[in-house]
Amino acid sequence: MTTRPLDLIDVDALHSEEELAIRGVVRRVVDDHVRPGVVEWYEQGRVPVRDLALELAKVGLLGMHLHGYGCAGASAVAYGLACLELEAGDSGVRSLVSVQGSLAMFAIWKYGSDEQKDEWLPRMAAGEAIGCFGLTEPDHGSDPASMKTRARRDGDDWILDGGKMWITNAPVADVGVIWARTEEGISGFAVPMHTPGVTAREVHHKLSLRASCTGEIVLDGVRLPASAQLPLARGLKAPLSCLTEARYGIVWGALGAARDSLHTALDYAGSREQFGRPIAGFQLTQAKLADAAVELQKGYLLALHLGRRADRGELSPEQVSVGKLNNVREALAIARQCRTILGANGISAEYPVMRHAANLETVLTYEGTSEIHQLVIGQKLTGIAAFA
Asked: Is RNA-binding found in the keyword set (predicted)?
């Protein structure tokens, strides 16, 4: 009798019926609307963002952990489980949900005016408006404090100039939360993407996260009314708080890619015969599977612990860094190891493992590289900042 990896220590016993029901709904959505098309999306480097967003919105997945404005108001743990199931389908799909809800919507929800919230959040929760989050720049990835994008006053208006790079959803977005340097410091702006002077160019030739829409944003003399500024977003802590929200989702999401890779390897090892018996019966294969299962469960327990802390209002940014650093690093190792179990078939798109491994190379980098999270943790341990 075979046992699924997460059943080894019965993690389902740690969840409420409501949490498990939400997980089941998201799993069905992934089975019905992601798995049938994701291989083609990945191979073609295109994803039907708008159609997919509408399907995800039907079950309340966009901004699901926010309250009001048509959002579901789900718990942090429920949101984490949703991210896990989405990334079991593909990291690009979880990225769509993360950027929409934890970055763009969260920024407007937490720092926006009542008018901005009323204008954007209901439509974004319904999947009728797509958002993006413009923080990273071509020359300033891990060092957002050095951003070159500027916003200057011109009468009652703002004029924005600069550029952003590696922005998920940018080519199809209706609104961009753009961060810029002003005389008073870093500020955020809700920028309708059709505004004159805004250009979004899709990034092509990616070798990872291909089932995701990624773009470059160019801002050339973009004139915005004073009402476009997010009134409560002051300083770099504002965008960093949004990143913490997104990083928390990744803590869970990476486990989905790892779980799907491990399930695939288990099924394959049980049916693939060499030397007269299934390769699952060889010691080296079982050692690989056992190690992967143990790391997956450890990562799951870490994610769940952080989720419970988040639901109590006790989660700190450095704790999220612990989760992001560990779980993405281990998920990538699991995917790579599972690829070896599949042998040559491991590089075929018939199986999802190589796609997960390639995607996790990007997840390892975005929302803070592993090195950045090591430094966040190091600063907490030593009291000394070592970023420069």
From this structure: no
